[in-house]
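Limitations

Structures in this collection are predictions, not experimental determinations, and the ligand pose is part of the prediction. Treat each record accordingly. The example that follows, with adenosine-5'-diphosphate as the small molecule, is included so readers can see exactly what is and is not provided: the inputs are given verbatim, and the output is the predicted complex.
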Amino acid sequence: MKVLLASSEVHPFSKTGGLADMVGALGKALARAGHEARIVTPLYRGIYEKFPGLKPEDWQFDLPLGAKQIQGKLFSLDVEKNLTIYFVEQDEFYNRAGIYLENDVSYADNAERFIFFSKCAAHLARYLPWQPEIVHVHDWQAAIVPALILHQRQNEGWGNPPATCLTIHNLAYQGTFPREAFALTNLPQEFFTPERMEFFDHLNCLKTGIAFADAITTVSPRYAREIMTEEYGCALDGILRKRKNSFYGILNGVDYEEWNPASDKFLDKNFSATRLGGKTANKLALQEEFHLPLDKNIPLFGTISRLAEQKGVDIQLGALEEMLSTDIQFVLLGSGATAYERGYQELARRFPTKVAVRVGYDETLAHRIEAGCDFYLMPSRFEPSGLNQMYSLRYGTIPIVRATGGLDDSVIDMTEDADCANGIKFREYSARALAKAIRKALAIYQQAELMRRYRRNGMKSDFSWNRTVAEYLRVYKTAKSATR
Ligand code: ADP
Ligand code: GLC
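Predicted complex:
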């Protein structure tokens, strides 16, 4: 099948979170399953310099954006057989210090930036000599593409356009803008209704995708069920329920070429389920890197995260406060809301021999934390899929997660299956419930044989992309037969 993916982030070119990992890995997995995958994404600052293989295409975008006409150029990179990445160059929009924001503040022209990007994606789908059968768009930044395609089919003579699929990676980010932004789409006024693109007098890009895509997916079965309820639905549960026959939950896969402790080039020592000894060397190296007392017997907890409300920062700070009277260590790598960054830094200042914090974004350190810790904390308020808990499992680092979304779908608690247990789950969203889960972890830590069993079970669990890609292909086929 020929699939064009459109995403505002693609690993290894740009990344703020799991979206980048997922899209990069999906493209690769499709290509390796013998399909033709191409991914379109913006050319952000620094990409051109870092990837010398990028070549200019003989292509010029010149597209209306409201009353303006905006020009852009196209670059491409052949990554491997069957996988090409297209980069949209528009320096005023994308050549900036951040992807979405700077100093905690979103760019004021994000509607312009990503509506233009969506128009470029639809334009490529229509005019590339290589004609995709499916256009698979990700999150709000590309979510209006299905509406653009439908409009061009109905009014501008696009015969036989591709089917469309929207993946929701996070319902909390919808791309809502004051109604004036609707003009940027250059779509006719009749598209701007509460059934389609309007959301309480605003343009809502994600809702547009939900209304128009032939198929909609999200990144775990449980999150799919959750967001059809009022509690988790972020006010879009109604339209999701309306489209429930075309809505699927598919758990993300892991790129085990990138995340494999046996070959990970960022580690001090590689290890595997049968050679677990190497894990201790990574623990000591991590303690050293974070200037914590070197001691292989102290249980070491870690988190790598965007510091946003979603991630359960408030209950994590509360639970740590309570648990730091015991003999544990905790390391954090993260960045995000300034108040949260300060919260962790303050904890590190008060407990310098127990807590260490690195504010920032550091790919290498992320791998080293996965390898060096005994337990991984992920107490999310909600979590569409989550990747770090799956990385943790493969690195023999026992995840402690709140039973929500993809966390619930990927981790097995003792109470669900004692023989296969690979992590610890708690339900209630509270510091107390998380502290109790940490106490359970400490009890497991005291029993070497039990600890080994959890680790082995985790390292055995398999979230490889073969399964995930097969599920997407099924959805693509259904979407093709359902083209609206
Ligand atoms: P989300 O996409 O909601 O942020 P995921 O668990 O799906 O959560 O994916 C997060 C990805 O981003 C993981 O690959 C994780 O290692 C990475 N990540 C998050 N914060 C950082 C950071 N500060 N430094 C390095 N990698 C990070
Ligand atoms: C989002 C979600 C996260 C998911 C990722 C990739 O950022 O918050 O749970 O793993 O997208 O799908």
